[in-house]
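[audit] Reproducing an earlier prediction to check determinism. Same input, same settings, fresh worker. If the tokens differ from the archived copy the diff job will pick it up downstream; this log only records the rerun itself.
[audit] input (354 residues):
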Amino acid sequence: MAKDGSSIPDEEWERFLRDAEAGTRSAPEEPSARARMVGRRLQEEAGPPAGWRAQQPPRRRPAKAWYAVGLLVAVVLLVVALDPGRVVGWFGDGHADGASASPATGSALRPPTVDEPFRGSPAAQWKDGTAGISVPVARATGWMNEGQVTHALGQSLDFLAAASLDPDVLRGGQPKKAIALINPHQRDVQDYLSAAFRDPSQENDPLLLFSRFAQTKVRLAGTTVKAQGSISFREGKRGAVEVTSDVTYVYPLVRAAGGSDEVARTIVRRETVMSWDDPAKVITEPGTFSLVSYKLDASNGGCSNFTGFFVPEFAADHQSSGKGPEVDPYDRSVPMDTRMKESGGTQCGTASRL
């Protein structure tokens, strides 16, 4: 808005954007990781299983993200000077579970630092770790009474923490606590987990379920990981309590080399469906769940990377642009299934912001 409250005419605004683009055509785009979907719900069975509930979540080729700074920052700086009202809504505050918006401030236009690793990101307003994951009130469901559902929800939250927030796992360790919560009789999943840490590959990638970074290359900037998301539950097959989590995690990182202070962020959104089965109907172990499906959408984690670790890019690392559609990795208003369909599940696309 102008100082008198009037808007800049549309034709003047369009002319400004054309002029700005013409002067910065060499600015790099910001590639992002697009939509890795791994797994889908158990295929319908003709009848009850003879023994345990066999599941084979198919894993599709993952695509991860890149990092760079594009035309947006230069445009924003000039727009703020000319018309601050136009930037309202460009930077979400992250209070809601969907894509929320709030006016941009000076800090949103400056790059993150080791002291302020979430500066300029909606995640700056998110809560830390599991505090950012909402858990519903329990009620009797399926084979469980209210108290048992409460316990299952708590253990589901424990799994998310052990898989995506545990400091040792983030430093590249094996997620033993998380794996201990997965039904050991779910043979296909156990085989995948064994192969993923022995010989990570496109087919057996530990990043499909766990967040890990190679400490020889990067380290967390500080000790805080921001998160936003929720857990829900319903009655599943054979009276099981099916728990679904949909959470976005934001990891601030610096190079492992001493003296490096540039901060890059890797953004990981995961949807995991866990089935707490009735032991009278499915072979399981107390305190463990069966994996029904798991999906991943990661930005700035490395494109076509199958090392078993997220590999974030810093500004100086930028090499090439993504080929997929542009996406806002902070936008949680789009369901994961929709995001997978939009991307085709295999593309390295373009992140609108990191």
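[audit] rerun output stored. Observation attached for the diff report: The longest helix spans residues 146-164.
[audit] end
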